[in-house]
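User: I'm putting together notes for a lab meeting next week and I want to include a structural view of one of the chains we've been expressing. I don't have a solved structure, so I'd like a prediction I can at least talk through. The sequence is below, exactly as it appears in our construct file.
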Amino acid sequence: MPGKKEEHFCELCGREVQHVSRHHLVPREEGGRYGATADLCQPCHSTLHLTFTNRELAILYNSIPALQQAEPLQKYLKWVKGKRLERITNRRGRNKKK
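Assistant: Thanks for the context. Below is the predicted structure for the 98-residue chain, given as structure tokens.
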């Protein structure tokens, strides 16, 4: 008898998902190695790092409420809430600002 799959919740979009990853609210490269973390689904985690630089995440968006209110994420958050997806492919471009 197969076991029941464990479900998790993404702290950013609030969706129930099968897998989450740990997001450092202040990126490790910006001094957040031992700081607060949040459990995010892969689509949200990938989108954060595609949308913002590590410096922006450290200074402006270092909490879940700040991320949820971030103007650049509003369209994405509205879109993802109704989706039942576990993975998304959105690659960082070569011209990503540093």
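A couple of points you could mention at the meeting. The longest strand covers residues 21-24. The radius of gyration is 14 Å.

User: Perfect, that's what I needed.
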